[in-house]
Amino acid sequence: MIWILLCTGWERTALTVLPGLEHILLNTPQSHGMKTKIVMRRISLLAALAILSCTGNTDFLNMNEDTLLCLSCKPLFLKSSDPDPVLISDYNILIYNAFGILEESIYVPEREKAEEVVHKTVLMSGQPFTILAAANLGYALGSLSLDQALKYRHYLAYPDEYSHGIPMAAVLHDVAAGPVVNIRLERLMGAVDVRLDKSGLNPDVKLSVKEIRIGNCPMSASLFTPGKAVQFFSNGFSLSGTALYPLDRGDAVRLYLLENLSGENPSSFVEIRSVYSSPECRTKAGEYLIYRFYLGEEDEYGIGRNTIQSVVVRPSGDGLSGDSWRVDKSALVY
After folding, report:
1. Peptide bond before 203: cis, by omega within 30 degrees of 0?
2. Are residues 78 and 50 in the same domain?
3. Structurally, how many domains does the chain consist of?
4. Global confidence as pTM
5. What SS3 string covers 206-270?
6. How confident is the model at residue 54 (pLDDT cuts 50, 70, 90)?
7. Secondary structure of residue 163 in the 3-state scheme
8. Which ranges of the chain would DSSP assign to H, the alpha helix?
9. In which domain, by residue range, is 28 found?
10. pLDDT tens figures, 150-171
11. What residues contact 244, with CB distance under 8 A and at least 6 apart?
């Protein structure tokens, strides 16, 4: 018999371990790529294995199986370069056993950027696991309970904080040990493609887009479960200058924002801000005519994670009325 002292940081427990089981040890929690193995959770298993050993059955020594966890994200229909929607820079993996107890907490920080990563781990054969994975958070999640993880919110410091990749997450239930487990990550952000069709405007109407802005831009999102925004950036996110050139070619401009299944919450919206002039009126100096479009459908406003919405604004005539969009004419002088 070999006596091993297990230390969890809260208590110390002396455990008798049979020969051949010395490899089942506790690694102290560490970040930067090290795994946190919670072996105190396996004391009951060791007791069961001890009983089995008395029968002379040693098959239990081979119950662990090498498993490759493959993380990737499905490309969007229109791939953009900034941000790269499939880039993975860092990642977290949380593995819970059938009782919802954390078995491993893995964090691999800034690494060589790729569209797919493979992480090797060891899972116990014949047991179901729940695996939570997240990418591009920029920090370690640590040793969260399953309930804590499912309620966890990821916060951005500013609306376009995605230079190292869009934050992503995935949840897999009833995962079995095996050669390969594919984990398909979903972006916490939705994409909005904005187009402006000015072909219906009167010939004497001039409309020059200066800025596209997202209003009620969420500051955070629930990491592993879809939900509503709870805080918003005061100024939102905007594009201007050369970023708007695609509009003049009839192409889309893509914007990203965190999920907001608004419900009764403030709905997120897109504003197209333009300098306007016609024979009847024009915009004041330094102010804009604003086309405002609320995301989602009229009976269900909002934008979901990993989705793409298309906004096409087609003003006609004098351009001062809209159908599915609203027109803010407060900057006009007659």
Report:
1. no
2. no
3. 3
4. 0.78
5. EEEEEEEEEECCECEEECCCCCCCCCECCCCEEEEHHHHHHHHCCCCEEEEEECECCCCCCCCEE
6. low
7. coil
8. 43-54, 146-150, 245-248
9. 1-60
10. 999 999 999 988 878 899 999 9
11. 209, 210, 211, 212, 253
